[in-house]
Amino acid sequence: MDFMMLLKAFAVGGAICVVGQLLIDLTAMTPARILVLFVTAGVALTALGVYEPLVEFAGGGAAVPLTGFGYTLAKGAETAVAEKGLLGALSGGVTGAAAGIAAAILFGWLCSLVSRSGDKS
After folding, report:
1. Residue 105: CA count within 13 A, CB half-sphere
2. Is the pLDDT of residue 118 over 80?
3. CA separation for the pair 78, 15 (Å, rounded)
4. 63, exposed or middle or buried, with CB in 10 Å at 0-12, 13-18, 19+?
5. pLDDT digits (tens, 9 = 90+) for 60-106
6. Staple partner for 70: which of 2, 3, 43, 93, CB 3.0–4.6 Å?
7. CA pair distance 62, 69, nearest whole angstrom
């Protein structure tokens, strides 16, 4: 793999994480609201045509964070609308992100098998 691509991915992914950390440190926003903000920002930036060039530039550095999940949802909906019409907007996002959703469920389940839940206090 090209070293410059790794550097770009690290820089963009790190910048996205810095924005998240600043939101945690400097605002009263909860982590759940920040999560929703990032996913929604990914969808909005994709709709404006800004996020796809960022993904092409930084690869996984832009596609893996939460904003990348919003990008995947938006691209899936866009593709489904082109293929199925307006009804594709309802199913395309989930279809486009199905592999990531399935992986998250699978690995969450596997982690639950090897760990114990308990009170954090």
Report:
1. 6
2. no
3. 27
4. buried
5. 889 888 888 899 889 899 999 999 888 888 888 888 888 888 998 99
6. 43
7. 10
Structure tokens at 107: 């690995």
Count H helices, E strands: the chain?
7, 0
Determine the 3-state secondary structure of 58 from DSSP: helix
Summarised one tens digit per residue, pLDDT across range 30-50 is: 999 999 999 999 999 999 999
Euclidean distance between CA atoms 75 and 51, whole angstroms = 10
Q: Which two tokens stand for residue 83?
A: 């293929």
Q: Is the separation of the CB atoms in 99 and 93 below 8 Å?
A: no
Please, which residues have CB within 8 angstroms of residue 8's CB and are 6 or more apart in sequence?
57, 58, 59, 61
Closest CA to 33 of 94, 62, 41: 41
Structure token digits, residue 86:
């307006």
Question: Is the pTM higher than 0.90?
Answer: no
Q: Token pair 């996002």 is at which residue?
A: 93
